[in-house]
UniProtKB/TrEMBL annotation:
GO terms for molecular function: G protein-coupled receptor activity; olfactory receptor activity. Its main location: membrane. The keyword Transmembrane helix applies. It comes from Fukomys mechowii (Mechow's mole rat). This is Olfactory receptor family 7.
Length: 214
């Protein structure tokens, strides 16, 4: 998911830098947006699944092999990919409904979904519905799941008398928490920041953080 996520934006950015051309065709833009959403959502949901995995491992270690059995892991993976595919096609179909555009420039190094939706000069009702519904389903719920999982993990660790057990648990969760903070922190800053204070330069830096650095 990470390789696909990065590969959907970075190669095109490198070509643009090397050729000094910032032009992208309409079809290529839609393809890039679809792939970006597909892998970004898969990454997003898998981060939530990984938080649940750590919650089970730390809070229910004796039942871990039963709860996180191979069949359930495969099911969670398939659900992650399927939900992400639905999300990418919803954005694609919404964009294809546009009959006119206010302008043809995107203030980013890739076809960023929110900015593509903002180019429409038609009514904003469908755009707002898609934005808020997708934001709740693929932003609020996954983030809530991660917060709840780590709340339970921290509560369990505080009851552990041995410091060695706490250190091992925190070291296990450290890399995951780092990616979660980087991924969600920059993503939330980009997409939920107020329009009035939005800066294209800051938006591109934030986009670079969660598309490349993570």
């Amino acid at each position: 998911a990470d390789i696909g996520f990065t590969s959907s934006t970075v190669p095109r950015m490198i070509v643009g830098i090397s050729t000094q051309s910032r032009v992208i065709s309409y079809g290529a833009c839609l393809t890039q947006m679809s792939l970006f959403i597909l892998f970004a959502c898969t990454d997003n949901i898998l981060l939530t699944v990984m938080a649940y995995d750590r919650f089970v491992a730390i809070c229910h270690p004796l039942h871990y092999a039963v709860i996180m059995n191979p069949r359930r892991c495969k099911l969670l993976l398939l659900l992650s990919v399927f939900a992400s595919l639905v999300d990418s096609q919803v954005h694609n179909l919404t964009t294809l409904q546009f009959t006119c555009f206010k302008e043809v420039q995107v203030a980013s190094f890739f076809c960023d979904p929110p900015q593509i939706l903002d180019l429409s000069c038609s009514g904003s009702l469908i755009k707002n519905i898609v934005t808020y519904v997708v934001g709740i389903l693929f932003g609020f719920f996954p983030m809530s799941g991660i917060i709840f999982s780590y709340y339970k993990i921290v509560s369990a660790l505080l009851k552990t008398p041995l410091s060695g057990g706490r250190y091992k648990a925190f070291s296990t969760c450290g890399s995951h928490l780092s990616v979660v903070c980087l991924f969600y922190g920059t993503g939330i800053g980009t997409y939920l920041g107020s329009i009035a204070s939005y800066s294209p330069r800051k938006g591109m830096v934030a986009s670079l953080m969660y598309t490349v650095v993570t």
